[in-house]
């Protein structure tokens, strides 16, 4: 009985210490989710701007700052610096967060999926290499 509750306590501690940290599973799920973005966005070392700007080094980047990409005024003037919280809000409903954006995407509503997508995108540094 004692051994059993000790094991349960250990499992609980492990679960708590992994919460909020990206793991390989999140990244793999996020890569799948990114298929919804691929029609318009690229990431990685060969990423180029297409319908939308490339998304390398997104977290920490200012909105509207990729050279050579023709952003809407709404995006350029949003004053956003992309971090996890603001990205989560934006990707749920892009047109609500940046009214007038030309990103034609309905949004991702599930928090878990947003978390996975964040873990996937966070891997890529500004040079497109995985950190
Ligand atoms: C139909 C095309 C399309 C799809 C699909 C799409 N986007 Fe976009 N995205 C755009 C366009 C166009 C812009 C530029 C918006 C502007 O200038 O108003 C943009 C802008 C962005 C920005 C702001 C970048 C910056 O430098 O300020 C982020 C972040 C972003 N998209 C993430 C995503 C993610 C993540 C997905 C998938 C879940 C996605 N987008 C799906 C077209 C798309």
From TrEMBL:
Keywords from the UniProt entry? Electron transport, Heme, Iron, Metal-binding, Signal, Transport
Question: Which superkingdom is the protein from?
Answer: Bacteria
Question: GO: which molecular function terms?
Answer: electron transfer activity; heme binding; metal ion binding
The signal peptide, as residue positions, is 1-24
Ranges for domain Cytochrome c: 25-125
User: Which PANTHER family has this protein been placed in?
Assistant: CYTOCHROME C
Listed name of the protein: Cytochrome c2
Which source organism does the UniProt entry give?
Answer: Afipia broomeae ATCC 49717
């Amino acid at each position: 009985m004692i051994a059993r509750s000790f094991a349960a306590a250990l499992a609980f501690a492990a679960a708590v210490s992994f919460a909020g940290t990206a793991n390989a599973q999140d990244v793999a799920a996020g890569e799948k989710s990114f298929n919804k973005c691929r029609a318009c966005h690229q990431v990685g070392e060969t990423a180029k701007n297409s319908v939308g700007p490339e998304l390398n080094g997104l977290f920490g980047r200012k909105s509207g700052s990729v050279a050579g990409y023709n952003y809407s005024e709404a995006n350029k003037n949003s004053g956003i610096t992309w971090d996890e919280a603001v990205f989560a809000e934006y990707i749920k409903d892009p047109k609500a967060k940046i009214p007038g954006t030309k990103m034609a995407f309905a949004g991702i509503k599930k928090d878990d999926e947003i978390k996975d997508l964040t873990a996937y995108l966070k891997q890529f540094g500004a040079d497109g290499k995985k950190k």
